[in-house]
Amino acid sequence: MMNYDLSFILPLFPILAVLISFGLGIFVFLRNPRHPVNIGFGLGMLSLVFIEIGGAISLLSSRESSTIFGRRVSLAGEAILPSAWFLFSITFARANYKEIILRWRPILIGLSICSVFFIFWIKSPNFFFLPGNGENNEILMLGPVGQYFYIFLLLGMIINLIHLENTLRFSVGLRRQQIKNVIIGVGALLSFHIYLASKALLFSALDAKYLPVTSVIVLISCSLVLFTVVRNRLLDMDIFISRYIIYNSMTVLLVGAYLLFVGLVAQGIKLAGGSFDTFWSILFVFTAIVGIVASLLSTRLRRKVQLFINRHFYSHKYEFRDKWMETTEKIGSKTNILQIQRTIVEMISETMGAREVYLWLYEPARCRYRLATSTVAIIGQLQIKEDHPLVSYIKRNPNPFFIKDIPEDAKGFAQEMAPLIMATKAVLCTPLIVGDEEPLGFILQGEDISGEPYRKDDFDLLRAITSHAAGRIKNVRLTQELLTVKEAETFHQVSTFFIHDLKNLVSTLSLLVQNAEEHMSNPLFQQDAARTLRSTVSKMNAMISNLTILYRGLKISPRPTNVNDLIEETVATLNGQVSSRLVKRMEGLPTIPADGEQLQKVCLNLLLNAIEASPPDGEIVIQTFAESGEVVLTVTDHGCGMSPEFIQSSLFRPFQTTKSHGLGIGLFQCKKIVEAHKGRIEVESEEGKGSIFRVVLPLAKVDEV
Description:
Heat Shock Protein 90; Rhopdopsin 7-helix transmembrane proteins; 5-stranded mixed beta sheet; 6-stranded antiparallel beta sheet; alpha+beta; Beta-Lactamase
């Protein structure tokens, strides 16, 4: 057997690996130095730089001390691997990376602490040491700390691979094409270090034979990542990962199977007295595995395999029941037009194997069809008029059709169609139509990436997907229109009440102006005019306050408050306006955390309602007491009362009132204020006998809302 002397070129591999790792890390980091994914990638490349610098020192040096120093530098780089690539793996291609970092921060901190711990112990003989005979500097024996280190490294690499696997699993279509080479490259690096860690643990030794092959693998992996950097926007994706998918990861299963297999093979080789630690055998196995993984992730290859299986083993190209359920689940749950748009194009792209999918929607206000979304980036905004030859053909043919089937004798066909076909590379069009109505839009798609022509099964599936999507889009649009109408109706109702009350106030001010011309010099008139102005301004402010609650919500500022004091202040403001007899039965109350200004509005509303409902000589009872950790306020009148139907369906609702004037939002305001204090308001009433309103407030602290 011929032997090749590689000693003169082996040191070149780590030197090249240092250069490409450092250059790639700096380039990516400088693209966005503040983003965690760029920081993680930069640190990961830095760890490789240390590993390869140490490898170069070990390979170039003939002295024992330099060899040991080089191995320590490499081990320091390996110690950084888990934490650096963990930061990268949890943020790469993740739109919600900030939330993920917070969720995984304890693990990140733990990995970082372990990395620092093992770096601190690198110089200890408990980490690694030379064999007793000292004749072979290529073999270093692991001590107890070194064995724990490689267990840590093994677990860290597994965790990182799990996150990268989840990122790849949840990416589809164009996004998967953009990120798969990065994941293959980084995943290959991490997988190889799992291999090295398993070897170190199996034989309790570090072998210098692995240094050159490690460098070559770094070069191959970095080249894959570099390919993505040049071809696509690096690290700029928006994939969301389910927090529960980690429990279903295939990484743990594959690594476990690998470790079991390696253990059995290594034990068998040791018993047979053989060795497989050669440069070319390891490099060949690694390259073969990476090639197989890359092939399995090839969209074109997977599409061809899928079509081959469907054509030769099934009667139909698609499992229509599953696809219909998937369509219903994905599109039927969406309530936003933008979400529906993205879901449609992603489904068709993934299902039909088309890279180019374009969704066009009709804009009635501009009488045009506009490109709403697509799977590929389009420069500029594409739009076509409703008299375009394509649209005219869609109106006559509601089923999917090939673009080439449009008759070319139509006026202006070539002039209108050529730019559209050139911009989209479309070969197939599917209308979005509900019943016999005008098309809501249409979908253009390019060829199947496998090169397979579209057939009847494709047309049937497209018709099913687009009919469901068109119905959903129309329903969402109708819902939005209904909400707009309701808002307009509510505004009209509010403005009607508001204008009615405002008209009464304006009439009062008009009378005041008319009388002022004749009685302005009369002191009594001046006093009466001042009271009228104060009252009118107060009522107008109350109207504005009530309307504000409807639209802006309510904010309270809790402070220590005594409800009895609020009632006394409220009754004082009614001096001279109460024709009924007020009876106060107030017990001593503890202070509660409450917004006194807002609660006073509740007291005033309840008292005014009781006064208006009671006869001139009627009695109104105000009672307060404390029980079961709550403060209770009751206002009782013996007036007209309310029917059970009104209480059930209309009380405490805005614009519902039994009075002939007013907005009908006073009790609605009271309910909002009491609920903001974590309390409740109750009512007992009977027609002709009066009403009892009960406000119950907790003694506990109230949070601001």
